[in-house]
Amino acid sequence: MEVSAPADTLWMSHALELARRAQAQGEVPVGAVVVLDDACIGEGWNQPIASHDPTAHAEIQALRAAARAAGNYRLPGATLYVTLEPCVMCAGAMVHARIARLVFGARDPKAGAAGSVFSILDSDRLNHRVQVTEGEGAAESAALLQSFFQARR
């Protein structure tokens, strides 16, 4: 099901709030929200440093919460909103979860797996494909990331 642009803006705004939470905790500012039937069923922000867990990316946190809420590791019909293009690990998790649609903000030219470096989500070698919409909240997502990394230098 195609989600309207106003809904995309609303949910990406929520993902950006979560990215700011990550930044406040000293984590790379990335936030993610899983939406099904116009309701948030999972959310997350980057937490690998605090949790000592290399898999604790925002998307993984949101997918785990959504799967618990749905009572199923498969999330057909769900949309995942994330402020930064997913990496290979997160794209793979989205395929396994059967996410229907991804909406992301900023591209990741070093590790993006939704078209920038790899194209996992539309690969004909996999048994599921995810519809991708990019650019929603891109400027704010990129600005958060740039300010975070500039402050670290």
What can you tell me about this protein's structure?
α1 packs parallel to α5 (138-152). The chain is globular, with a radius of gyration of 14 Å. A 5-stranded mixed β-sheet has the order 2-1-3-4-5. It has helices spanning 5-24, 48-51, 58-70, 88-97, 138-152, and strands at 31-36, 39-45, 79-84, 101-106, 131-134. β1 (31-36) and β2 (39-45) form a beta hairpin. The longest helix is centred in the N-terminal third of the chain and has 20 residues, at 5-24. The protein has 5 helices and 5 strands; from the N terminus they run αββααβαββα. With 153 residues, the protein is an alpha/beta fold. The model has no long low-confidence stretch (mean pLDDT 95).
Structure summarized in a few sentences:
With 153 residues, the chain is an alpha/beta fold. It is built from five helices and five strands; from the N terminus they run αββααβαββα.
Sum up the structure in keywords.
5-stranded mixed sheet, alpha/beta, 153 residues, globular
Amino-to-carboxy terminus distance = 43 Å
Give the integer mean of the pLDDT values.
95
- What Rg, in angstroms, do the CA atoms define? 14 Å
Strand residue percentage? 15-25%
State the major sheet.
Answer: 5 strands, mixed
State the secondary-structure class.
alpha/beta
Low-confidence stretches: none
Using the alpha-carbon principal axes, give the shape. globular
Q: Count the helices. How many?
A: 5
The amount of helix comes to 40-55%
- N-to-C series of helices and strands: HEEHHEHEEH
How many E-type strands?
A: 5
Biggest sheet, spatial arrangement of strands: 2-1-3-4-5
